[in-house]
Structures are given as C-alpha cells and as structure tokens.
Design goal:
By secondary structure, the chain is α/β, with parallel strands linked by helices. It has four helices and five strands, in the order E-H-E-H-E-H-E-E-H. The longest helix is centred in the first third of the chain and has 13 residues.
C-alpha cells in the first residue's frame, strides 16, 4: 500500500515566528506542489497538528518565543506517528544531528530537504 502522501499532495507544516521567512518557505513549498499550513510558534504548531491531523513534514525554526523548535521536536518525537522534522536556524547549532538547514538558504535547498524527508523510511 502506498504511503498516504503518495495519494495526495504532501502536507507541510511551516513553523516560524518571522513572517518574511514563513512566507518565503510557504511560497517555495506551494510552488513545488505541497499543501502548506503555517504556524507562528511551537504552541500554535501543536494546535495545528491536533486540528489538521496528518502532517507529512514539519519545517520549524529553532529560535521562537513560547515553544522553540527544539522543544517542539521533543514533543513531536513523543507522538506515536511523529512526522519528520526539518529544523532551520539563523544561529549555529553544531550539536544538531538530525535534518537541518542554516539560514539563509535557497528555495532549492529547502525543497530538496523536504523531498528527502518524504522519501526516507520512518
């Protein structure tokens, strides 16, 4: 049986408190054919996950108020069917061992990273 995202456009949740970055990511992913929903911080991202249900990939900034990207990642990993997460940051986070992009990044780099997460088995 095909994974759910192969039967419909994958849903990407973009989480960033900076409206310019959030809009850039949203437009880039929409242009690639993804369905995109957005959140302004980790708390609103968790609400989106509850209301939307199945999310295929989360793209989250690390440095955000209320609930940052690392705390969001920890909460997502506690879920039974956690979506893969791509962390992005303008600050250096050398300790990260999971998928991440350093800001500024290109549209192509973002889309390639999301595509890679969608094709990885989890």
């Amino acid at each position: 049986m095909a994974p759910p995202h192969e039967l419909r456009p994958p849903i990407v949740l973009v989480v960033d408190d900076d409206p310019v970055v959030r809009s850039f990511e949203e437009k880039a992913l929409l242009a690639e054919g993804y369905r995109v929903i957005t959140a302004v911080n980790g708390l609103s991202a968790l609400e989106m996950l509850r209301s939307v249900g199945q999310i295929d990939v989360v793209v989250s900034d690390i440095e955000m108020p209320q609930l940052d990207g690392l705390a969001l990642l920890a909460r997502l990993h506690a879920l039974p069917s956690a979506p893969p997460v791509l962390l992005v940051s303008g600050l250096s986070h050398d300790e990260l061992d999971g998928p991440h992009l350093q800001k500024p990044f290109t549209r192509d780099a973002l889309c390639e990273a999301v595509r890679e997460l969608l094709t990885r088995p989890h």
